[in-house]
Amino acid sequence: xxxxxxxxxxxxxxxxxxxxxxxxxxxxxxxxxxxxxxxxxxxxxxxxxxxxxxxxxxxxxxxxxxxxxxxxxxxxxxxxxxxxxxxxxxxxxxxxxxxxxxxxxxxxxxxxxxxxxxxxxxxxxx
Length: 126
Prior knowledge:
- The protein has strands at residues 2-7, 10-13, 18-26, 33-39, 46-51, 58-60, 68-73, 78-83, 92-99, 115-116, 120-125.
- The chain is mainly β.
- Strands 2, 4, 5, 6, 9, 10 and 11 form a 7-stranded mixed β-sheet that branches. A 4-stranded antiparallel β-sheet has the order 1-3-8-7, with no helix packed on it.
- The termini are far apart.
């Protein structure tokens, strides 16, 4: 079992940057593939980025590729999402998730993630 807590969201102007953090407690996060998802009002939750257990493998949604970097510090049990050149379309609640399965890479399917944080709001003004 792992407990996830996101932080770092807020209000930023278009073109700005934010770094989201996801702190894991309980079972060490290095045993999980970690992902970030987001959900905008009236839309389904969608994949943003994922990172493998060692941090050596990453995957990004096309909508954020080149603007977003996922990273992890297993010693600190924390996963990060650095977001640059933010757009109003990036406005959403961002969720951190942990996947303990042995599913093949990439891990874009919401259904494979076992644990979720409560989310952090990101609002990008134009």
